[in-house]
Amino acid sequence: MAVYILLGSVGLVVVLALLSIDAYRMGVRRKNEVFAAPSLPASYNLRPNRSVPTMSSLEHPYRVTHHTDKRGPMMANGQTSFGYLLPTREVVMAPGDPDFASMFHLAETAEGSGFDSVWCGDSVLARPRLEALGTLAAIAGRTKRVKLGTAVFLPALRNPVVLANEVANLDIMSQGRVILGVGIASKTPAVEKEFNACGVSFRHRVSIFEECVTVMRKLWTESEVTFDGRHFKLDGISLGLKSVQKGGIPLWMAASAEKPQCRMLKMGDGWFPNSTSPEKFTEGWQQIEALAKKSGDDAGRLHKALYTTLNINEDKAQADKEMREFIEGYYNMPFETMSRTQSVFTGNVQDTVAWLKGFVAAGVETIVVRFGGPDQAGQLELCGTEIMPQV
Fold it and tell me: What is the DSSP string of 141-202?
């Protein structure tokens, strides 16, 4: 009888333990659901058609030549250059293990199709994705010509000395092809939680950002750095790795309001907004010029770029449907909310060409494209063959 009671007690303990573990897991899921990444359909296409040549097999008529302007890529014919945002978040959201090899294929296809740069986004927890600098380092070994950029990177989440060293290393690996698009991070609960988890004050993220950028620039360009800031202090520090690009890595900033624009005029090398229309881009640039005139800064030295999301399709209704699903899945926000501040466009080839030409007329020098839809490979190829030659 005592044995049965003992076995029964053990069994009860095991059941209670299992229930406790399950409850704990559910609690963890609820606690961390702000970081949960929605899934994408199994039909998500990240693999390009292998008939599209890469730069190893073809010299494309729109290829870039080497130049000394380090602010950004510039096409040999002087026209606006194109960049492609690699789907480093989408590959993590898709079912199954992340297909990292697809990043190689897409980057090589972009280079072979005449794109002038490839880009990676950045987030540690708020919007999980492949890590940006490590991904670009791998891409550097598989490409020869394209610039390698971040759109956008959050310096405040990292120690500036470590980050300066890592970015300089990437610039050395790629022989001077790096552009660092940087930002302060959006004010959302998920991003605030991300900062807290990384041990960084969300409330002070702007001043941390400013000090990070200042320290990195000094470490790239000065033989010895002493810095006495609020968040970081350096005493006679020399960085062993210097960027290949003299003057340091180009820093591009979104700067959509007056204070960030003033900051960009002092600290940045390029303007990288997500303008919702050519008119909004023009309005923003005119504001930057007015601020520069008032402060005595040179707005003309800034490289003017655009970050936009496209879905190219003869079926407008299908393009709209795919874009809505993409944006809402990516941001966990209603499409109507995001489209008020995000540059998004859906339409056929000719409508897309006309829309992008509006930005070119407004002075955009580089257009970085993200594709809002499941057929990443197909959109990339369509843009390279049908859109870019006409813009």
Answer: TT-SS-EEEEEEE-GGGS-HHHHHHHHHHHHHHTTS-EEEEE------HHHHHHHHHTT--S
Rg value, the chain, Cα: 23
DSSP conformation letters of 3-50: HHHHHHHHHHHHHHHHHHHHHHHHHHHHHTGGGPPPP--TT-B-PPPT
Q: How many CB atoms lie within 10 A of CB 258?
A: 12
Mean pLDDT per 10-residue section of the chain, whose length is 391 residues: 38 38 36 44 61 36 31 57 98 96 98 98 97 98 98 98 98 98 95 98 98 98 98 98 96 97 98 98 98 98 98 98 97 95 97 98 98 97 97 97
CB contact set of 188 (below 8 Å; sequence gap of 6+): 126
Q: Could you give the CA distance from residue 299 to residue 309 in angstroms, rounded to a whole number? A: 26
Cα 141 → chain centroid:
19
- Picking from 168, 179, 169, 216, the residue whose alpha carbon sits closest to that of residue 69 is 179
Q: Which residues of 36-54 are buried (b: 16+ CB within 10 A; e: fewer)?
A: ebeebeeebbbebeeebeb
Q: If you write DSSP's letter for every residue of 243-299 in order, what string do you get? A: -SSTT-S-EEE---SHHHHHHHHHH-SEE----SSHHHHHHHHHHHHHHHHHHT--G
Compute CA 107 distance to the chain's CA centroid, rounded to the nearest angstrom: 14
| 144 in Cβ contact with 115 (< 8 Å) | no
Cβ 381 vs Cβ 109: under 8 Å: yes
Strands 225-228 and 233-237: antiparallel
SS (H, E, C) 86-147: CCCCHHHHCCCCCCCHHHHHHHHHHHHCCCCEEEECCCCCCCCCCCHHHHHHHHHCCCCCCE
pTM for the model: 0.83
**HSE-up (13 A, CA, CB side) for residue 61:** 4
Q: Which residue from 168, 228, 218, 157 is spatially nearest to 193, judged by alpha carbons? A: 157
227 has which bridge partners? 234
Could you tell me the domains of the chain? 32-200+246-390 (3.20.20.30)
* Structural element, H or E, at residue 371: strand 366-371
